[in-house]
Specification:
Helix content: 10-25%
Largest sheet: 6 strands, mixed
Number of helices: 5
Protein name: Polymeric immunoglobulin receptor
Structural class: mainly beta
Number of strands: 29
Number of domains: 3
CATH class of the largest domain: Mainly Beta
CATH architecture of the largest domain: Sandwich
Radius of gyration: 38 Å
Main location: membrane
Distance between the termini: 143 Å
Keywords: Membrane, Transmembrane
CATH superfamily of the largest domain: Immunoglobulins
Organism: Oreochromis niloticus (Nile tilapia)
CATH topology of the largest domain: Immunoglobulin-like
InterPro entries: CD300_family_receptors, Ig-like_dom_sf, Ig-like_fold, Ig_sub, Ig_V-set
């Protein structure tokens, strides 16, 4: 008996020309190793190759090319697959690996299962599978399937996972309490018309939903966003900074078919005041002198003492019979003499030498005034 082999090239050409989409083209090549004992068998094999492939592969066909999806570890991802008109009532499913019976993860007839849930939008003809709590083992090859008699329709999906943090390079910005600061974020020219935004933290997966401001809103409370499309930079201005504004920020640029692009900012807001903070104790009824150093460049400025928890909420102390102010330019200090203290003088004071409160060598004074019991007075009362 004469043995003959089916040429490998012919097998692959048949697979391609007949539009038989195999989930692994190596299956086609396995048929090239088949040996036949006669010319008659050889002729039969060529004529019936399609039939054999259909039986072995369950006549699998493919709807579109490969869908690439990227998700964040620990978060969830949506895998959306379209299908043609007429298949609205057919069962859909998502499977993994080679899509054997044990590889089916979820079907539209059982729409919630373990970490998977599926929704079939029959109007848009798109069914979407959500995979939650993504782990590194979830990465890899998937198939969107549409069940039909004889021929299931498959679309290949490649799922890639990345860590939910950003970034290797961080831009550091330093400012002070009460000031305004601008944060600049660069982007590539192809994203001129894309949505831009900024959020706190360093988790890309939730940045857009937690955005402080976007290029659509432009103004939101203390935040303003300006987009210079010529320079490829969007700038976020933050007014009235507080130390609570310190921390990590992400600048985001939205991409429709891929993960958004991010750059990282680290903002440090320092306490505006002071080179020196003093804690002074005084006694009610006694005099007290406060010394207030100031920067040499403030020598010709008006000097003042004000009272308040914050410099922005500080009331000037009027110089009167109880308070007097004396400037000593030689020592770059001014002195406030209090003729006698009152318990109501307790509080926070600021030595001022610049009405605009620009950053400089100011002094913050915490004054505590206490009363002292008159022991001799008590003795006198007892004798009487």
């Amino acid at each position: 008996m004469e043995e003959s082999a089916i040429p490998s090239l012919l097998i692959v050409q048949l697979c391609t020309s007949l539009h038989i989409a195999v989930k692994d083209h190596s299956v086609c090549l396995t048929f090239s190793n088949l040996k036949f004992q006669s010319a008659k068998a050889k002729m039969w094999s060529l004529q019936n190759l399609l039939f054999i492939l259909c039986i072995v592969l369950r006549c699998v066909t493919s709807a579109v090319g490969v869908i690439h999806v990227t998700g964040y570890v620990g978060r969830e991802v949506n895998v959306s697959c379209s299908y043609n008109e007429g298949y609205e009532s057919y069962e859909k499913y998502l499977c993994k690996n080679d899509c054997g019976s044990d590889d089916v993860l979820i079907t539209t007839s059982n729409s919630v299962k373990n970490k998977y849930r599926v929704h079939d939008d029959k109007t848009a003809r798109i069914f979407t599978t959500t995979i939650t709590d993504l782990q590194s083992t979830d990465a890899g090859k998937y198939w969107c399937g549409v069940t039909r008699t004889g021929n299931d329709i498959y679309t290949k999906v490649e799922l890639k996972l990345v860590r939910d943090s950003c970034c290797d390079t961080v831009t550091k910005v330093q400012s002070y309490e009460g000031y305004s600061e601008s944060v600049s974020c660069r982007y590539e020219s192809q994203y001129q018309n894309s949505l831009k935004y900024i959020c706190r933290g360093n988790q890309p997966s939730t940045c857009l939903q937690d955005a402080l401001i976007t290029s659509d809103t432009k103004l939101n409370g203390r935040f303003r966003l300006d987009d210079d499309k010529v320079l490829g930079t969007f700038t976020v201005n933050i007014n009235s900074l507080t130390q609570n504004d310190s921390g990590s920020y992400l600048c985001g640029v939205q991409r429709n078919s891929e993960l958004d692009v991010f750059s990282a900012i680290e903002l440090e807001v320092e306490e505006w005041c002071c080179v020196k903070a003093k804690h002074i104790n005084g006694i009610a009824g006694r005099p007290l002198t406060l010394q207030c150093p100031y920067p040499p460049q403030h020598q010709n400025n008006r000097k003042f003492l004000c009272k308040g928890d914050h410099r922005n909420k500080c009331t000037d102390i009027l110089m009167d019979q109880r308070f007097t102010l004396q400037d000593d330019a030689a020592s770059s200090s001014f002195f406030v003499m209090i003729r006698y203290l009152d318990v109501h003088d307790t509080g926070t004071y600021w030595c001022g030498s610049d009405p605009q409160w620009r950053v400089g060598n100011y002094t913050k004074i915490e004054l505590s005034v206490v009363t002292v019991r008159c022991v001799t007075c008590d003795i006198g009362r007892t004798r009487s």
